[in-house]
Amino acid sequence: MTLKELKAKKIELGLTNSMISKASGVPVSTVEKLFGGTTKAPRKATLEAIERVLLAEAAKRPFSYAGSSAGSTGMIREETAVYSAPPHRKYTIDDYYALPEDQRMELIDGELYDMGAPSMIHQKILGELHILFRECTDRHAPHCDVYLSPCDVRLDRDNYTMVQPDLLVICREYDQNAIRYEGAPDLTVEILSPSSRHKDMILKLYKYKNAGVREYWVVDPQKRNVIVHMLQDEDYTPRIYEFDAEIPIGISDGKCSIDFSRISKRL
Q1: Three-class secondary structure of residue 154 per DSSP
Q2: DSSP letters along 251-264, please?
Q3: CA–CA separation, 101 vs 99, rounded Å?
Q4: Per-residue CA distances from 200 to 106, 123, 153, 193, 216 (Å)
Q5: What span, in angstroms and rounded, lies between the C-alpha atoms of 190 and 164?
Q6: Cys-Cys crosslink for 1: which of 5, 105, 149, 195, Cβ 3.0 to 4.6 Å?
Q7: Which fold has domain 120-264?
Q8: 252 Cβ contact partners less than 8 Å away, ≥ 6 residues apart
Q9: 206 Cα distance to chain centroid
C-alpha cells in the first residue's frame, strides 16, 4: 500500500496510532510522525509492518452483501456488494482512566485520540503563554485561574468526552481538589502540531463552542499566527493575529491583552 492508502485504511478501520503501534511493534512516535506527515521518507520496513496490521485487522471484520441480486446464473453480482462492518462501541471515561499512565489520549464523543509527546517549540510557547496569562489574571482577574495540560476536562459532563486543552482559564467557582474540571472553561488554548491540526481546528472548535467555552485560541507555530474565536458572540468572525501582535483577551472586556512578540522573541 502507498502511504495515502494506509491513511485511508486506518480511518476506515477506526484504529488509533497507539493501537497500530501496539500491534505492529513500531514506536507510537514513529506512527504519529508517519500519519501526521512529519516523516517525508518513511522506511520500507515501517510501512510493511503497519500494512500487515491493517490488512490483518481488515480480515477480522465480517462483511455482508446488501442489496445484491442474482443473475440468470444464480451468482451474486459483484458490483452490488456493500461492505458492512460491525458497529464500533463507544469508549467511556472508564476506558480513559484504564489507560496506562504513560499513554496520553483524549476521549471525544466515545472515540480515543492519541496525544503524542509535544515538541520543544510547543512546550516553549505553552510555558510563555502561561506566564503571560497569569500576569493578566494577577492584575485584572484574581478570581480566574490558569491551568496547563495535562489537566482533565469533562467538557460535556457526560461519560464519553474528556479533553486536555493545552491551556485553560476558569473564571467561576469550582472544586479545586477535584481530579478534573467539570464543564466548559471560560477560555481554552490549543497549540497545533501536524498530528493534531484537524482535531484542534475542526473537532475541538465544534466541541468547545457547543459546550459553552467563551473564547478559543488556536496557535499555529508553523504559520506563526494565532486564530481567536469568540465562540459566544453571534455571527462572530475569527480574528487572525501574527506572532508579533498584541492580542486582546476577549473575556477580559478590554482589560488585558497578550503581547505575543514577547513569545516570538524566544522562538
Answers
A1: strand
A2: GGTTS-EEETHHHH
A3: 6
A4: 12, 16, 15, 9, 10
A5: 9
A6: 5
A7: tt1808, chain A (3.90.1570)
A8: 136, 140, 141
A9: 12
pTM summary value: 0.68
SS3 category, 231: coil
Query: What pLDDT, in 10s, does the model give residues 76-106?
Result: 333 333 334 445 678 999 999 998 887 889 9
3 state DSSP class of 218 = strand
Q: For the CA atoms of 242, 243, 246, 247, what is the dihedral angle to 10 degrees?
A: 70
Instruction: Count how many residues are written for the chain.
Output: 267
CA–CA distance, 35 with 51 (Å, rounded to integer): 13
**Which residues, 6 or more positions from 101, have their beta carbon under 8 angstroms from its beta carbon?**
none
- Mark the ranges of the chain whose per-residue pLDDT is less than 70: 40, 60-88
Q: Look at residue 9 in the predicted model and tell me its pLDDT.
A: 81
Res 63: pLDDT: 41
Do 61 and 74 touch, CB atoms closer than 8 A?
no
Judge if 3-88 and 120-264 fold alike in CATH terms.
Answer: no
